[in-house]
């Protein structure tokens, strides 16, 4: 099976969170770790061949994962990084590095070969009634990642949890430690409609007598995490000591975080390409995790921490580029917390008229995100452009337009993202901000990669 066919088969599995077809009475798929464990066992339990770090949370888990993997890479460890979702190609979810080289996506041939192996194992389990149905998209890709890391001889794997924690497919590993980033309301249909319930799901990645690295946050989240940690005799590590007392520099349009922190009684210069003050929390978590790993015998020097932070690559997060001579800022901002972070960054960094290209998934808090972001673009000369994404979960043009009407906001509605971007690029001066969903940023990036617009 070639790569294109493997991808076609993979997407035919459907997305676990996709809305049910209209009129369908079929129950939603239930997550069950027993299914993932059965699949992994059939594959020889590849996840047992490397040391794992699990990272869960609502916001910042991807940035924390990318930063930590970069630190491990800079320390010379053979490292794997598993994240989700991807922006353009599914290969982005699975990266490896050896001998300090840059993290690289899994190649097409390896992905296709491992897909066949996972698919064959799953079909055998279904035939033998050891699985009630074929694995989900996420379960299959997670299994491919485990196999890829095992084959590549990865020693350390940084695994970003996909959804929640307790029942996530990544949670079949036995992590050396667990990291929990900021928690807020998201995926409430699946995880619960309160911070307490969601935090309880995230706490599912904690292990008996294990280690939890986190930061003080919402009181309900602190309480829920603390209760689980006490019940499991978990040692908690507070990453707050690695937050800057204050930024050494005012916010800059070059989108960098520059400051110093004390790490193991030494000054460490943080020079991160990840923009926004919110990233300081994610960087602190990565530093704390690196220090904890070093204490467990996984050597990571302060120099490796600084170098790893400096060389972190995590596109789509306050990412700046130029298209047709226009300044463009792309940020996934996929929930209210992310929208507030983007709003803070824009308020402190940009002046003058700006154009917003906005879209979102229908199952997100679209109205709340719009309420947070739209006012910044209602100043004289500002524009708001709305368009549905090419995604089964996407909010429709009508839904987006209705939200703008309810907020008494003037907005232009387009049939698709490409049309909205083309219009934005044709308008007057000012920055174009693309925000509202990982899938929106990914769709725009795919169009850029195909040469839709010139730099």
Describe this structure in words.
This is Dihydrofolate synthase/folylpolyglutamate synthase. Its EC number is 6.3.2.12, 6.3.2.17. Belongs to the folylpolyglutamate synthase family. It comes from Terriglobus saanensis (strain ATCC BAA-1853 / DSM 23119 / SP1PR4). Keywords: ATP-binding, Folate biosynthesis, Ligase, Magnesium, Metal-binding, Nucleotide-binding. By secondary structure, this protein is α/β, with parallel strands linked by helices. The protein folds into two domains: about 5-310, Mur-like, catalytic domain (UDP-N-acetylmuramoyl-L-alanine:D-glutamate ligase); about 320-450, Mur ligase, C-terminal domain (Protein-Tyrosine Phosphatase, Chain A), CATH 3.90.190.20. It has helices spanning about 5-10, 35-40, 60-75, 110-125, 135-150, 190, 195-200, 220-230, 280-295, 300-310, 335-350, 365-375, 395-405, 415-425, 440-450, and strands at about 50-55, 80, 95, 105, 155-160, 175-180, 210-215, 235-240, 255-265, 265-270, 320-325, 325-330, 355-360, 385, 410-415, 430-435. It has an eight-stranded mixed sheet, sandwiched between helices. Strand 7 (about 210-215), helix 8 (about 220-230) and strand 8 form a beta-alpha-beta unit. Helix 3 (about 60-75) crosses helix 10, helix 4 (about 110-125) crosses helix 5 and helix 7 (about 195-200) runs parallel beside helix 8 (about 220-230). The longest helix has 20 residues, at about 110-125. The radius of gyration is 22 Å and the shape is globular.
